Amino acid sequence: MRYAGLLVMPAGFFLAVAAIVLFPDPARRAVFLIAGLAVEAMGLGVAMRGHMQSQGEHRS
Amino acid sequence: MSVSTAPLTETSFALALGLLMLAPLAVAGMALINTGLGRSRSAAQSILGSMLMVAAAALAFALLGATFADSASGTGHVIHLAGKQWNWAGTGTIGLSGFATAPARAQLGLLFQFLAVALAVLIPWGSGADRWRLPAGAAAAVVLAAIFFPLLAHWSWSTGWLAQLGANFGLGAGLLDAGGASAIHVLGGLSALAVVWIAGPRRGKFPREGLSTAMPGHNSIYVLFGCAVAAMGWLAFNTAGALLWCDVALSTLPVIAINTWLAAVAALAATYTVTRVRFGKPDASLCANGWLAGLVTSSACAAVVTPVQALLIGFVAGIITPLLVEFLELGVAIDDPAGAISVHAAGGIWGLFAAGVFAPHSGQVLAQFVAIATLLGFVFPLIYLAFWLLNRFVPFRVDADGERIGLDLHELGGNAYPEFVVHRDDSYR
Questions:
Q1: Domains within chain B, CATH numbers bracketed
Q2: How far apart are CA B123 and CA B231, in angstroms?
Q3: Which residues make beta-bridge pairs with B126?
Q4: Do A10 and B381 touch (CB under 8 A)?
Q5: Cβ <8 Å between B332 and A14
Q6: Which among B6, B135, B257, B360 would be 20 to 30 A from A7, CA to CA?
Q7: Is residue B7 packed enough to be buried (19+ CB in 10 Å), middle (13-18) or exposed (0-12)?
Q8: Cα–Cα distance, B241 to B299 (Å, whole number)
Q9: CB contact (8 A) between residue A37 and residue B374
Q10: How far is A22 from chain B (nearest CA, A)?
Q11: What residues 31-60 of chain A have any CB closer than 8 A to a CB of chain B?
């Protein structure tokens, strides 16, 4: 699950890069950039969740 | 924020050089903080590890990293995409050859980067306290100094693609980050997250039943004195960075120094209040984290905001930091003894965002968003991958016996405090 989250995060980065390349309009750029950051936050959240699960299994 | 190639005046050169002579105080302060926040049984290993990591980073940066970071030649490895140039790496000479004859500005830029990389590699060291082996720490420092730091330094302080976002895409002035919030602090903070994920928590930190075990730092005097020492280094980094990377007028340097100071004191006041309200008494180590978080935010924004804005930015950092430290430990089971993830990664991202909000350039916040997206979505997964691979060859974590007796005895053969009597550790259940 941690790796799944880490694999999702680059998708957010490419969304952000696509936003500045594809949209000259500042409003659309901003929306896509925020969407890219949201995807990264989601990936980080999934990776955190995976870390919590593995910690639960290995509590000492 | 692309670097100027105009020659420095003699006054600017002398001032920047003098300021950079003070910047190692940030490194010394960070080493003291990391040591104080760890346990007494690993104190000598911690401070020696700090020196070893600085040495490993300097060697790796001199031999290879400076080539990619290159801010002197004004050129770079370029990809052409969508009709624009994406300058992604420097084209300096390998091993610093020919640098003695480079322009004064380029030489000072290189000195700034040598000191900045030392600070960046120390950030994850505190998070891996009490379990991260010396050879693994040094190897991680080499990876950070040879690959990740140089690329981020080139992107943000030179002719790199983040610095050119303004010229190429009309996003404000390009990435604004004179003091190194992205290349030093967010890089270090995200590395810290990768380290604690790979090395795992200290033994006994998260027992099968109940809440996490409190493992307070062994010397709050080191921690708080380290904060005071680090502040002097930060003043030097922020003012010298503004001179070198933003080409500011000399008359603006006092305001930049005041902004740095105000961000730190506001953050400390906020953290003091938050911990006083939440726990009934102020918490010294969290207050130290708050102070540092204020300094980290100032790295991004001190050169572009007013004193009142710096105060506000620091105050918000001081509120967020202790809450995030608590959430990461209790809510997400992350064992980060130094709080580096909250202080450096989150504080740096907040500083970058705030610089975009308050900077007087249209579209600046979007440039800062692109930088944050790059750090989180591109750099962090690669750091994790690099450290995961490194852990296969140089295991990060000490064995259970070494952790039990302490890294001083295990790795150095002697304690930092030989007159101390070692008691049974109640945290081992």
A1: 10-204+213-412 (1.10.3430.10)
A2: 15
A3: none
A4: yes
A5: no
A6: B135
A7: exposed
A8: 9
A9: no
A10: 8
A11: 33-34, 36-37, 39-41, 43-44, 48, 51-52, 55-56, 58-60
Indicate yes or no: CB of B208 within 8 angstroms of CB of A60. yes
Phi and psi angles of residue B306, each rounded to the nearest 5 degrees, phi first: -90, 165
Q: What is the pLDDT of residues B130-177, one digit of tens each?
A: 999 999 999 999 999 999 999 999 999 888 999 999 999 999 999 999
Give the domain extent around A44: 2-57
Placement of tokens 């994406």 in the chain: B86
Residue B234 DSSP class: H
Domain count, chain A: 1
- The span from the first CA to the last CA of chain B, in angstroms, equals 53
Asked if the interface predicted TM-score (ipTM) of this complex is over 0.90, the answer is: yes
Report the alpha-carbon angle B348-B337-B20, nearest 5.
45
Is there a contact between B88 and B69 (Cβ–Cβ < 8 Å)? no
Give me the DSSP letters along A11-57: HHHHHHHHHHHH--SHHHHHHHHHHHHHHHHHHHHHHHHHHHHHHHH
Cα–Cα distance list, B283 to A34, B30, B45, B111, B287 (Å): 35, 19, 26, 37, 6
- Whether residue B171 lies within 8 A of chain A, CB to CB, comes out as yes
Residues of chain A with pLDDT under 50: none
Q: Which residue from A35, A47, A36, A44 is spatially nearest to A14, judged by alpha carbons? A: A36
| Residue B252 tokens, joined | 């603006």
Q: State yes or no: pLDDT of B390 exceeds 60.
A: yes
Query: Strand, helix or coil at B85?
Result: strand
Residue with the two structure tokens 């924020």: B1
Place of tokens 């003291």: B32
Asked if the model's pLDDT at residue B429 lies above 50, the reply is no
Which sign, positive or negative, has the C-alpha torsion A41, B358, B298, B144? positive
Question: What DSSP character marks residue B207?
Answer: -
**Residue indicated by tokens 């974590």:** B397
Bridge partners, residue B174, by sequence: B172
CA distance B211 to A14: 39
pTM for the whole structure: 0.95
B13-38 per-position pLDDT tens digit: 999 999 999 999 999 999 999 999 99
